[in-house]
Design brief:
243 residues; mainly alpha; 11 helices; 60% helix
Length: 243
């Protein structure tokens, strides 16, 4: 099985953001959103009936280039509606962008704005925008009845978001809508049971996602970590999936 090596830049990011979450007393800020996401993931896990395009953590890593290409398609949209070119969306700019993507701004999206503004700058940066958009797409999308699926103005982006959700569901081994360290150990070791991943590797990977250090990883936390693993903001090499 391929080794999952720690990502220094993500480790630094997770420490910085984790500090923000702790210092701002933000656990309650995210609790309502994370509970909604947890219920959504449980529903989607059940409706998937154990079917997945992923067979191992390596199969997820090998898709990183496709994830990166799919998410990069948002860069042009972001820059188009960042009218003052300051690298962040304010509420007005976000409204215009969501209308373009055929998403209507509701109070729930206002709450998502605050939840995704992790540095409290009253603006949404590009990586935060990706997370925000994915969460809107997920929460507005029916868990079942595929004929009634929410449509965005980008089939490629829909497919990318759907695949990221599928990756989370694959890692959620017990189907409780969140990840724990046991889930990660199973995912990292099941491809080749005879070549088990060192505990320090699984521990490091888990810490990179568990920003609030509560021993559980919500889909929101996973999404921020996943986007940084893919390297959407850089041209860093994809983590080695070879042995």
């Amino acid at each position: 099985m391929g080794k999952c090596h720690p990502c220094p830049s993500l480790k630094s990011l997770s420490s910085r953001i984790g500090g923000m979450l702790c210092n701002c007393g933000s656990s309650n800020k995210y609790k309502k959103l994370d509970s909604k996401l947890e219920r959504k993931m449980i529903e989607m896990k059940r409706s998937a009936s154990g079917q997945s395009n992923f067979k191992s953590i390596d199969s997820i890593i090998l898709r990183f280039p496709q994830f990166k290409d799919g998410l990069r398609s948002l860069r042009g949209v972001f820059e188009q509606y960042d009218e003052d070119s300051n690298g962040t969306f304010d509420h007005e700019e976000l409204n215009k962008c969501l209308e373009k993507l055929q998403l209507r701004l509701t109070k729930e999206v206002e709450d998502l704005f605050r939840s995704c503004d992790i540095d409290g700058s009253e603006g949404i940066q590009f990586n935060e925008f990706i997370v925000l958009l994915c969460l809107i797409y997920l929460l507005m999308k029916p868990s079942t009845s595929p004929d009634n699926t929410l449509k965005m103005d980008s089939p490629q982006l829909e497919a990318t978001f759907d695949t990221i959700v599928e990756a989370f569901l694959f890692l959620d081994k017990n189907g409780d809508g969140k990840l724990n360290k046991e889930d990660m150990i199973k995912a990292l070791n099941e491809a080749s049971p005879w070549e088990r991943s060192p505990a320090r590797v699984t521990g490091t990977r888990f810490k990179e996602m568990d920003w609030d250090k509560n021993g559980k990883v919500s889909f929101r936390e996973f999404l921020f970590a996943f986007i940084n693993w893919v390297g959407i903001e850089s041209d860093e090499e994809i983590p080695d999936s070879g042995s």
